[in-house]
Amino acid sequence: MIKRLVYIFFNKYISFLISRNFESFTFNTVTLNESKAILLVANHFSWWDGFLMFHLNKVFFKRRFHVMVTDENYKNISFLKYLGAFPIKKQSRDMLHTLVLAGRLLNDKNNLLLIFPQGKLFSNHLEQIEFGKGLSRVIDHSSKNFQYLFAATFVDYFDTPKPLVTCYLQNHDYADLDNLALIQSAYNVHYKNSRQQQCRITI
Q: What string of H, E and C letters represents the secondary structure of the chain?
C-alpha cells in the first residue's frame, strides 16, 4: 500500500517538475505492437533523461516502466526503486544476474524497459552514439519477442528562458535487428536524421 502511494505521488510530481522546468516537451507518435514488450533505447545527456522517459511512458506508451540505473544513483535517489528502477553494479558478480532479470522483463508484453546504451552521460551535441555491450547481454537473456523503440532527445532554448525538449521516436521489430551491430547502426541512422531535423527548427 505504501509503495503504491509513493508511486502515485512521484508519478504526479515528476510531471509537475517537467512542466515547471521545461517550456515544452514534444514527441512524435508511432504505432506500437500491443502484444509485445518495449525495449526503449535512448541517448543519455542529462540528469533529466530517465524522468523524461518516465513521463513519456505515462502519457503515451502506458506500460509498466523499468529502467536500469547505476548502483550509485539507486542509492542516492531513494525513490527510484518505487518507479521501476533497478541497479546494476558494474565489475561485480551481481552484474550478470541483473542483466538476466532485465532480459526477462522483455518477455511480458505489459513491460517497458528503458536502457541508455552509452552507459554514462555524454554531450547532447554528439554526432554518433556508441553502444556498450550490456544491451546485447540483456537481449540474449530474453525470449527475443519484443519491439525496439528508439528515442533521440534534444534540448534547445530558442527564444524562451526555459528549455524546449523534443523527442524523436522510431520503432522496429526484433526480427529486423537481431545483433548489436545492427541495433547500433539503425539507432545512429535515426539519431542522425533526428539531429538534422532538430537543426532545421527555426523560431
A: CHHHHHHHHHHHHHHHHHHHHCCEEEECCCCCCCCCEEEEEECCCCCCHHHHHHHHHHHHHCCEEEEEEEHHHHHHCHHHHHHCEEEECCCCCHHHHHHHHHHHHCCCCCEEEEECCCCCCCCCCCCCCCCCCHHHHHHHCCCCCEEEEEEEEEEECCCCCCCEEEEEEEEEEHHHCCCHHHHHHHHHHHHHHHHHHHHCCCC
203 residues of the chain, pLDDT tens digit each = 667 888 889 899 999 999 999 999 999 999 999 999 999 999 999 999 999 999 999 999 999 999 988 778 777 777 788 889 988 877 667 788 889 999 999 999 999 999 999 988 899 999 999 998 889 999 999 999 999 999 999 999 999 999 999 999 999 998 888 889 999 999 999 999 999 999 998 87
Fold topology of 2-199: Glycerol-3-phosphate (1)-acyltransferase (3.40.1130)
